[in-house]
Predict the 3D structure of the following.
Amino acid sequence: MSNYFSYLPDVFVRTSTYRQNNVDPFVKTKNLFRRVKIRDDVEGLVTGFTQYTIVNNERPDNVSQKFYGDPQYDWVVLMTNNVTNIYDEWPMTEDELYKYCTSTYNSPEDIHHHETFEVKDTRGNIVLRAGLTIPSNFTYRRPDGTMVATVDLVHPITNYEFESAKNDFKRNIYILRRPYLTTFLEEFQSLVEYEDSREVDSNTGVKKTTDAIKENFIPVKPTYSTNIGQTSSVDFAVQQDFGNITVDTSGATIEEGQQLSDGSTTVTTDESSTSTNAASSNSAITETASNTTDSSSSSSSSSSSSGSSGSSGGYGGY
């Protein structure tokens, strides 16, 4: 089957719908969407095809080897018979058929339906065809009025017989004659090739679509966090800076020997010492304040004296 893919053209497939790092990500692969079908009006022509019945356990590559001398043309056998699913459309082996029946039905020997036998008149003409699906109580009267016995008219079909008949129908296929194989391969290759287009490289024959607006210009939109929306893929700065701030209070303690910011109070373990230090500090502050008061008084006195002298010196009351 690998020979089939060698005839398919290559195509560059974009692996992402947007550009990453200013590079368009493309991967070259086989274009599996290029497919050819045998025309219905030439299928089964005597000149081009021959009928063949698949034997038990025979695979498509076995049939290819038998008719073409090479197993790699098994896809030709399948294509000429429009087989797209080998598991459903290719006949099963006897072992596979029995396993299928046991897994599908309660018992392969149970009755699936009833069918007719072939019925003829007194002249030998067929008046009732065989293989017609009928109910079990079906009756039939010949044109001359005689009744056909049930034993000569109806017979049961088991589940295994029903599935076996369907499987045998799949055994009848058409094989492309060997003289036409080369022509078939050439025409197949010409049909799967691309037509002239600006997307197809004239040298390599590889197709690449680079100017699709939907792929190149639609940006990737992140999802956002809402009360009823989906989980966000982007954390906003306001959420990072103000939404999840943790305050560390482990270092907010005062230990022995440390001084406060005023530089005068030292922490000790003795409450009386701390009080004394604080009292000394307060005395120092009071003394400083008193000195400041005295200085202010002196300044006031000096100002008064200067004012008196000035007044007596004839400055007009200034």
